């Protein structure tokens, strides 16, 4: 394992949780400024849409057409009033409603509404499809890339940070992928078209209507900042409630709270945060209500002001304003305010989305430290299959200090096919590191690790690991049935093969005693099973894989004496006919090994059979006597 006290490095935090509403404007800008600098970011974002060019062009056209159509009804309203309802004859007198004209105008208005609605549905489907496909492809691409990263990346990076990149950052760009582009285009065209329509109707009224707009925009910005700050606190409160839930309602958390009778304190902690959440939600809902009241008054007052100004202009003879012009003008004006407000938020939304994209691309640009060389080949079958060799191997963990003592220093040994080899020694000596280097989970810093006669760096990783089975001390089972957990090693395994693997792992009778047999759900991390049962299922899973080399990393150290005896028998059966590398803390489990390597301070100081090492009276003999006199307490 990595040296104690080493700190995670290399990966940054998860970043913002979404759009502007996750915090104050200035705080959001500061957070965006801390995003990693990615070369050609805009080009790389654009390339994400390449597979959807046709749909994207169609969306842009629909947005432009839809925005342009939105200003046609007010102009038709003018015609309905002036030419349909209150037409004026050649003599300047009202002639009464012109029903044919009115019918034509009304039909045209209904047609525009129908076409706009259909275009809106089509546009929504296209933007949702494009955005979610791009987001889904990006999420899978990132997940795939993370699967290729070396083990050291995950030991130095918090799981929460990785989850944040996959969920929060990728989810956060959904808005720019689905809404922002269409919002920018639609609002811009709507504002410009409405402004042009207002000018065409009457330029004097346009000036009057726009005079108060700047004040409303400034007020909207201020209220938006206040609401954003409250929303940020609300998100923090939600995060805290989520953390409490994860900590206390997981299997481990429930066991801990019950064992210390802390359920009441956990309930109180959750209730307090819930009360804080309620208070923040109410504040968030109430903030800006005066502003919206002002907007309502303003929006209601402008038509009245327009009527007053129109009367003054008509009475003064300074303008030719008709009733249709007034109605059409007030209708167009009502469409202008909120698109303007929407455009104000676009710049920060785009900046925030760019920061999220930068964080995503930062991970995508990470280069796996362990990769296949172009000439990599598969593991060759033959008599050498199962041979493991270390040739003057030196290893230092990637995050270790450069001047620190290497974890392994000049280690050399050979394990022949079919041998049972054990590695023993004090904690921190480097035993587990040996098990990491064989399947190339880590790369040797110096020397060579060979498998079946070939340097592991010249073999395809997938081929190498397919010949190696690992049973560790910390057994991981999925929250699924026993059969599904077993088939993780071989998805197409038959029921008969499951039976054979379970029998070889000495767990068949136990599974048969369960009411649901192989369909028994093991629970989160296998908590519904005992330690020995979980370990034997893990052994059966490895046996289903049928590897040439079996690595046992202290596979029984966490078990009680009875469970250890049962599991050890299963391990002994599993090791027959295959090379076995056992990392052991309890020397009693490896006394029958063909060869025992004693590692101290990263070096092999002794090797031989149990009898030979006892006779030699060295480190192994001393460790064995200590464990015989006093049962070992695992570190």
From TrEMBL:
Topology within the bilayer: Multi-pass membrane protein
Record carries keyword DNA repair: no
Cellular localization per UniProt: Cell inner membrane
Membrane-spanning intervals of the chain: 54-77, 98-122, 191-219, 290-315
Residue ranges occupied by any ABC transmembrane type-1 domain in the UniProt entry: 57-352
Keywords: ATP-binding, Cell inner membrane, Cell membrane, Membrane, Nucleotide-binding, Transmembrane, Transmembrane helix, Transport
Family annotation (InterPro entries): AAA+_ATPase (IPR003593), ABC1_TM_dom (IPR011527), ABC1_TM_sf (IPR036640), ABC_transporter-like_ATP-bd (IPR003439), ABC_transporter-like_CS (IPR017871), P-loop_NTPase (IPR027417), Type_1_exporter (IPR039421)
GO molecular function, one term: ATP binding
Compositionally biased tracts (Gly residues): 7-17
PROSITE patterns: ABC_TM1F, ABC_TRANSPORTER_1, ABC_TRANSPORTER_2
Region feature Disordered, mapped onto this chain: 1-32
Any GO BP annotation: oligopeptide export from mitochondrion
A cellular component annotation (GO) from this entry: plasma membrane
The ABC transporter domain, residue ranges: 388-626
Family to which the UniProt record says this protein belongs: Belongs to the ABC transporter superfamily. Siderophore-Fe(3+) uptake transporter (SIUT) (TC 3.A.1.21) family.
Protein's name in the database: Multidrug ABC transporter ATP-binding protein
């Amino acid at each position: 394992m990595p040296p104690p006290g080493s700190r995670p490095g290399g990966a940054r935090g998860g970043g913002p949780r979404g759009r502007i509403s996750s915090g104050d404007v200035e705080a959001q800008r500061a957070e965006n400024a801390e995003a990693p600098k990615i070369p050609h970011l805009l080009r790389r974002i654009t390339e994400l849409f390449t597979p959807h060019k046709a749909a994207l062009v169609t969306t842009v056209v629909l947005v432009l057409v839809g925005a342009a159509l939105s200003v046609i009804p007010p102009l038709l309203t003018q015609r309905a009033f002036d030419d349909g309802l209150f037409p004026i004859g050649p003599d300047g007198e009202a002639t009464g409603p012109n029903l044919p004209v009115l019918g034509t105008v009304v039909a045209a208005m209904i047609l525009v509404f129908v076409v706009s609605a259909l275009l809106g549905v089509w546009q929504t489907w296209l933007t949702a499809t494009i955005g979610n496909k791009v987001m889904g492809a990006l999420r899978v691409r990132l997940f795939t890339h993370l699967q290729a990263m070396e083990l050291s990346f995950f030991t130095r990076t918090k799981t929460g940070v990785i989850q944040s990149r996959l969920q929060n950052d990728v989810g956060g760009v959904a808005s720019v992928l689905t809404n922002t582009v269409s919002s920018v285009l639609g609002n811009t065209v709507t504002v410009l078209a409405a402004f042009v329509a207002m000018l065409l109707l009457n330029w004097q009224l346009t000036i009057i209507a726009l005079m108060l707009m700047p004040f409303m925009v400034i007020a909207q910005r201020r209220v938006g900042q206040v609401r954003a700050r409250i929303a940020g606190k609300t998100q923090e409160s939600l995060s805290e409630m989520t953390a409490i839930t994860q900590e206390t309602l997981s299997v481990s958390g429930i066991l801990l709270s019950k064992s210390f009778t802390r359920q009441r304190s956990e309930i109180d902690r959750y209730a307090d945060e819930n009360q804080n959440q309620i208070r923040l939600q109410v504040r968030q809902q109430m903030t800006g209500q005066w502003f919206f009241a002002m907007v309502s008054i303003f929006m209601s007052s402008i038509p009245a002001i327009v009527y007053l100004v129109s009367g003054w202009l008509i009475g003064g003879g300074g303008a030719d304003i008709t009733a249709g012009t007034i109605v059409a003008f007030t209708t167009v004006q009502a469409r202008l305010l909120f698109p303007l407000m929407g455009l104000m938020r676009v710049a920060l939304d785009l900046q925030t989305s760019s920061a999220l994209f930068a964080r995503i691309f930062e991970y995508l640009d990470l280069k796996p430290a362990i990769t296949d060389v172009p000439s990599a080949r598969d593991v060759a079958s033959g008599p050498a299959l199962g041979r493991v060799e270390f040739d003057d191997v030196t290893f230092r963990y990637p995050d270790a200090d450069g001047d620190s003592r290497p974890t392994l220093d000049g280690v050399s040994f050979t394990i022949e096919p079919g041998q049972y080899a054990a590695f023993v020694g004090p904690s921190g000596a480097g035993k587990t590191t040996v098990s990491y280097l064989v399947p190339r989970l880590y790369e040797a810093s110096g020397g060579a690790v060979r498998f079946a006669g070939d340097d592991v760096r010249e073999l395809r990783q997938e081929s190498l690991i397919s010949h190696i089975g690992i049973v560790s001390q910390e057994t991981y089972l999925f929250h699924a049935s026993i059969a599904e957990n077993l088939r993780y090693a071989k998805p197409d395994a038959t029921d008969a093969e499951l039976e054979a693997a379970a029998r070889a792992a000495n767990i068949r009778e136990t599974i048969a005693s369960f009411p649901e047999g192989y369909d028994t759900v093991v629970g989160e991390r296998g908590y519904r099973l005992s330690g020995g049962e979980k370990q034997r299922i893990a052994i059966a899973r490895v046996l289903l894989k049928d590897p040439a080399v079996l690595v046992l990393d202290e596979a029984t150290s966490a078990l009680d004496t009875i469970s250890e005896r049962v599991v050890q028998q299963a391990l002994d059966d599993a090791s027959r006919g295959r090379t076995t590398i056992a990392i052991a803390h309890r020397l009693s489990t490896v006394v029958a090994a063909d060869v025992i390597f004693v590692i101290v301070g990263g070096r092999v100081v002794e090797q031989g059979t149990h009898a030979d090492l006892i006779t030699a009276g060295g480190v192994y003999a001393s460790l064995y006597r200590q464990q015989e006199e006093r049962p070992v307490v695992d570190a």
